[in-house]
């Protein structure tokens, strides 16, 4: 039977997802995995693939998802779409709300505070509900851009690892999309007609990250293999597992 472009692309994405699971030994029998579902294309795609993986017998995993709403940031997320998407894939979705004080002056940017508090809510929810792993939707481009940011701005050759065992809690972060190319996820999201979130965060602006993205796009034009080169350097330097 002829395959549609959507099915062919999903197959490519799923193969890389499986390779990431294997290369980084991300799954163990009995894992309870909590997906951080922002509503963006990456975490939607992550949910779709983990939902499929959940139907395989060994290693046996259980998957649920959580969407964290930030009460004090007018950042509209269409939770009814997230609920129907998760339900369609047989994944239970939890919605939790949190907030932070953005009126007290702080030396930290609002985006930093917002993501710090979101992360805190995610960890708390995972621990209170017996999840031993949290799956996040960062892909290979995110990991490379972070490595560039840390190298050029922090003086540290480091990045978001594919697997990170948290020091102070019995929770491991996994990034099963770590081998995915962003453009493939974007194309799949379009073919699969993912609904775009009404992302109206008033604090979002051009950041150093956006600049790294542009620079990396330029580098890839000169050397289409550049991503594999950076990945290899990160792997060789032991930066992908903590
Ligand atoms: N509000 C949220 N609730 C739960 N998890 C979240 C939330 N926001 C982000 N995450 C998790 O953190 C990851 C990285 O967040 P980031 O803000 O970079 O993603 P995004 O661009 O909003 O969306 P996505 O990565 O899903 O396309 C997401 O892929 C998701 O797993």
From TrEMBL:
Cross-referenced SUPFAM superfamilies, in alphabetical order?
Adenine nucleotide alpha hydrolases-like (SSF52402)
Q: Which terms in the Gene Ontology molecular function aspect does this entry carry?
A: ATP binding; transferase activity
Report any one BP term from Gene Ontology: tRNA processing
Task: List, for all copies, the residue spans of the domain called tRNA(Ile)-lysidine/2-thiocytidine synthase N-terminal.
Answer: 33-208
- What protein name applies here? tRNA 2-thiocytidine biosynthesis protein TtcA
Q: Which residues take part in binding ATP?
A: 36-38, 42, 68, 137, 142
Tell me which Pfam families the record gives. ATP_bind_3
Q: Write the record's keywords in alphabetical order, separated by commas.
A: ATP-binding, Nucleotide-binding, Transferase
């Amino acid at each position: 039977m002829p395959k549609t472009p959507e099915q062919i692309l999903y197959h490519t994405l799923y193969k890389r997802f499986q390779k990431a699971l294997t290369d980084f030994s991300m799954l163990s029998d009995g894992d309870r995995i909590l997906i951080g579902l922002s509503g963006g294309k990456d975490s939607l795609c992550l949910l779709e693939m983990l939902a499929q993986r959940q139907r395989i017998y060994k290693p046996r995993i259980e998957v649920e998802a959580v969407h964290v709403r930030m009460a004090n940031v007018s950042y509209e997320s269409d939770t009814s779409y997230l609920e129907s998407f998760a339900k369609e894939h047989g994944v239970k979705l939890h919605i939790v709300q949190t907030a932070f004080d953005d009126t007290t002056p702080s030396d930290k940017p609002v985006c930093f505070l917002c993501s710090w508090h979101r992360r805190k809510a995610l960890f708390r929810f995972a621990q209170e509900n017996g999840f031993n792993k949290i799956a996040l939707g960062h892909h290979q481009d995110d990991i490379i851009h972070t490595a560039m940011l840390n190298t050029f701005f922090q003086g540290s050759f480091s990045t978001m690892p594919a697997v990170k065992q948290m020091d102070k809690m019995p929770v491991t972060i996994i990034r099963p999309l770590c081998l995915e190319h962003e453009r493939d996820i974007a194309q799949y999201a379009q073919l699969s007609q993912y609904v775009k979130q009404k992302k109206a965060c008033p604090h979002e602006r051009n950041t150093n990250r956006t600049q790294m993205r542009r620079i990396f796009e330029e580098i890839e034009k000169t050397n289409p293999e550049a991503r594999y080169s950076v990945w290899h350097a990160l792997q060789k330097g032991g930066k992908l597992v903590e």
